[in-house]
Amino acid sequence: MRSGVRRTGESYDRPMRLTPALAALPLLLAAAACAPADEPSASSSSGASASSASCAAANLPLKKAGTLTIGTDSPAYDPWFSKNDPANGKGFESAVAYAVADQLGFSKDEVSWVKVPFNSSYAPGAKQFDFDINQISITPARAKVVDFSDGYYSAAQGVIALKGSKAASITSLADLKDLKLGAQTGTTSLTAITDVVQPSSQPLVFDDTNQAKQALLNGQVDAILADLPTAFYITAVEIPKGTIVGQFQPETGQQEQFGMLFEKGSKLVPCVNEALAKLKTSGRLAQIEKQWLSDVVDVPVLK
């Protein structure tokens, strides 16, 4: 996505321990993706390997000495962030960012957040951040002008409709073709609609998740697409009369990955990859995922 209607986007993103209202929801399988998946090998173009000496905090090539500057969009949506405050350490991506910062040798008060609109994050050119974390899908096209870390999360695409609507009864990807679909602009959810579903009518495109949700409530669209964790949050908290009618992986045998995004040629990439590798090996990344997203969900797979 951004994976999906973030934000939703995309994507903005939505079984999750995000609020007490979600505590009773089942845990979610975090192993699929938000839109047409790309080869994991596209995750980073730096190709450099990290060393403990070069990755010491004092030696890192930072935008501001002594401070790790991290970008994300605003609003910053649940379950990726909490209460639109990336600096509180709550929500999956905020927690991951601080865990990476800790591995790199930065305390919480040595981390600074800056607002970066989703669609401009992967535009070519100089960046005001050391890395951006915002459900940004790793794609070969984007990797031509920016660098990515290794993937830190992959999520299936979820289809959200209103309970009792015609869209709520779909059972296959083919059933989606004649529906009016919508997603946030610039997201892989939108790409999933155009490239995978290939609907008979053009999808509606929204500037942000709130617009997409309102369009669903207003009947302007039959269904909207979002990464699965965001879809769960939307249907559990924001649109209780909404339902996730199915999930799918955009490309058979592939998983789309979210990666941290860097200015092209950033020498910080291998150090962040080293930090991520340690978080994966120690089990810390899995713990964060389980806390803020989920482990098991009973959502039909659309084929």
Question: Could you describe the 3D structure shown?
Answer:
The protein has eight helices and ten strands. The protein has a single domain, classed as 3-Layer(aba) Sandwich (D-Maltodextrin-Binding Protein, domain 2), CATH 3.40.190. By secondary structure, the protein is of the alpha/beta class. The relative contact order is 0.27. Helix 1 (92-104) packs across helix 7 and helix 1 (92-104) packs antiparallel against helix 8 (284-292). Residues 3-48 have low confidence and may be disordered.
Using the coordinates above, name the CATH class: Alpha Beta
Indicate the percent of residues in helices.
10-25%
- Sheet with the most strands: spatial strand order: 7-6-8-5-9
Work out the number of β strands: 10
First CA to last CA: what distance?
19 Å
What is the CATH architecture term?
3-Layer(aba) Sandwich
Question: Which percent band covers the strand fraction?
Answer: 15-25%
Rg calc = 18 Å
Q: What sequence of helices (H) and strands (E) makes up the elements? A: EHEHEHEEEHEHEHEEHH
List the helices and strands and how they pair.
Elements: E1 68-72, H1 92-104, E2 111-115, H2 118-121, E3 131-132, H3 140-143, E4 146-153, E5 157-162, E6 181-184, H4 188-197, E7 204-206, H5 209-218, E8 223-227, H6 228-238, E9 242-248, E10 258-263, H7 269-282, H8 284-292
Parallel strand pairs: 1-2, 1-3, 6-7, 6-8
Antiparallel strand pairs: 4-10, 5-8, 5-9
Helix pairs in contact: 1-7, 1-8
Quick structural gist:
The protein has 303 residues and is α/β, with parallel strands linked by helices.
